[in-house]
Amino acid sequence: MTRSSWKLLNVDPELEKKCEEANRAGKVVILETRKRGSVISDKMVGHKFRIHNGKTFFTLEITNEHIGFHFGEFAPTRKVGKHGKAGTH
After folding, report:
1. Domains parsed from the chain with CATH numbers
2. Which residue, 13, 32, 34, 80, could crosslink 50 as a Cys pair with Cβ 3.0–4.6 Å?
3. CB burial of residue 85 (10 Å; 0-12, 13-18, 19+)
4. Mean pLDDT of successive 10-residue stretches along the chain, which has 89 residues
């Protein structure tokens, strides 16, 4: 089921404000966020974000291809399972 069209995108206003201030100053900033559900907007392009996955922060540099995606899509929360060698317990 898709999200209703009348609902707005979930963009964190604090992150957007910090990005706007950095854009006006002409600086590239590194911002940390734990809000994985927030949507990446066009004001965030060029900045670096450290996205929390529950344990550590993953660094992501925002490009035009990232616009419209959620931060959580770029920070995996689960480890990939590995099988042990044959004959070892």
Report:
1. 28-74 (3.30.860.10)
2. 32
3. exposed
4. 78 92 93 93 94 94 94 90 77
